[in-house]
Amino acid sequence: MNEVVSENYPVVVGVDGSPSSLAAVRWAARDAAHRHTSLRLVHALGLPSLYVGAWPPSSELRAMLAERGDEMLAAAKDVATSTADIDVEVVMDNDDPAPVLIEKSRAARLLVLGGSGHGGFMAGLALGSTAVKVASHAHSAVVVVRGENADRRPERDPVVVGVDGSPLSESALSFAFEEASLRGAPLLAVHTWFDTEAAEMLAPERFAVEWGTAQEVAERLLAERLAGWGEKYPDVTVERVITRGRPHQELIKLSERAQLVVVGSRGRGGFAGLLLGSHSQALIHAARCPVMVVRPAADRG
Prior knowledge:
Elements: E1 11-14, H1 19-35, E2 39-44, H2 59-83, E3 88-93, H3 97-104, E4 110-114, H4 131-137, E5 142-145, E6 159-162, H5 167-183, E7 187-192, H6 211-226, H7 229-232, E8 238-243, H8 247-255, E9 260-264, H9 278-286, E10 291-294
Parallel strand pairs: 1-2, 1-4, 2-3, 4-5, 6-7, 6-9, 7-8, 9-10
Antiparallel strand pairs: 5-10
Helix pairs in contact: 1-2, 3-4, 8-9
């Protein structure tokens, strides 16, 4: 169990009434059941976005949005309770979605979002438009539920984790092993030893690196990162995957047969202060299964 997250915290999921949001509710309900914890459904009315200059939205509009929010939360609660036998709490907030969800993540085991939002007349309420912002600033790990039937993937499908040797990939390993253990799933630990984004700088005529040599270095790095996890999670079968290429491309390809991909919010060599790396963003937008983005431990305290 990850030591930085209270076991009493619920799984929190954003609700906006969209099919993607309800898929996230189903995924979150099953995850909460695995963790023997509760589920908290959160809907944000987005009232600050409705101000026209100094003029607040009318009382009629506020009442309409609140009534609509109550209906969304009731429907989401029905979906959650029909999915798993768990305690479900509903919360409605007046603020915009991103700040509400970021604040709620302070007391969350996980924060779960749909991969695309409602897209109704209030575009600011669409969860899809805030996923990157929330994943960049949340205090907990964030799961973006993407892909066809993402909430119904067979639990025999593997959990995939990207390992690059950075401190955040170590945290990602912790979450990935936990998820695989909770689900009784195998774990694919993936390391890419050569990033094709640097192909021109590392042209063969400049650096003659043999495949076998690079492969051996990559195997050693991955073995070192996995050391000790098998003793902590003896029930998890681990497959090591070492490839040459761009990390997000390999992870997107593996997501087609995975039930979850786990990555750090930024990887090895990321710029200081960068909140969400390019590979994490690519996965949020293009993965074929839910993606868990793990934030630095200091941000999850």
